[in-house]
Input
Amino acid sequence: MNWDDTTETAADGEERLVGSAADGEDQAVEAALRPKDLREFVGQAKVREQLDLVLRAARTRGAAADHVLLSGAPGLGKTTLSMIIAAEMAAPIRITSGPAIQHAGDLAAILSSLQDGEVLFLDEIHRMSRPAEEMLYMAMEDFRVDVIVGKGPGATAIPLELPPFTLVGATTRAGLLPPPLRDRFGFTAHMEFYEPAELEQVIHRSARLLDVETDAEGATEIAGRSRGTPRIANRLLRRVRDYAQVKADGVITREIASRALAVYEVDERGLDRLDRGVLTALLKLFGGGPVGLSTLAVAVGEERETVEEVAEPFLVREGLLARTPRGRVATPAAWAHLGLTPPQPPPGAPGGAGQQGLFGA
Output
């Protein structure tokens, strides 16, 4: 229900069912499922309360809302909130992304065409080029840009006045934003991962919109495997719906959800084939570690970047894997999850290999 757009696939091009990226089909379905105002938006209670105050105050003053920066993992609702901001302010919205703005002229063309009070949503703002970023400083603060005409000694800066607008920046890596840009946002919010109870609300709402019948236990089963991310919850709901329609009577129960997700190789903690492959290699081939990232990637037949950026963040968040100066190490929870017994340290050794040496026997 609340999601953002990136690309997340395995090295062989296979799209991950539990990936937080949105493909073309996802984007079309998500557009229909997105909440239209803050009252419909599930989760992020503190962010909703703070943002509601910002928007109400702006409407009372009859002015454009302050610039807003939203940070957090993909799929948590940054794009949805930007659309809600525009709807609450009764303003049009322009959507673009940082990678699409590689020159200052690209940004100048967008800014010069904005209407009074319009919302400009800039996704992955940390990936914008430096010249465009520096132009954005003046646009956000003074609602003005200087357009350079000509080259060399004869170049002239022509000031261009802009109507008041609201910039909504979204980023998955807030630490990459330079302080001068971050400081120009009047309101900043960090999107947290969702609790299972909140994801159950998301699933029930989406099920009603998709005209799918699901009981409480079925929603609970899907929510528990959704990795704290609404986009993943909705994706799993659609796949379980398909299974229920083909293999059962169309009603999603706990048993149907469990059987369906077993078909799609999503286990009870939300791990998929790639996640389990990384853990299995770490435990069975390397005794729980420590092992270098490149070696681990070769062992699972994936690119180094795929393991580091796609699989590891969730495994670390779940407490199944740790990044250490000596390499990747499995935790006791990883051994328990795969039903394996960790190796015993040699007699007289202080800790033994891998996770026992770091986490205790």
About this structure: Confidence is low (pLDDT under 50) at residues 1-7, 10-14, 349-361. The domain at 273-359 is CATH 1.10.10.10 (Arc Repressor Mutant, subunit A). The chain has three domains: 44-190, 196-263, 273-359.
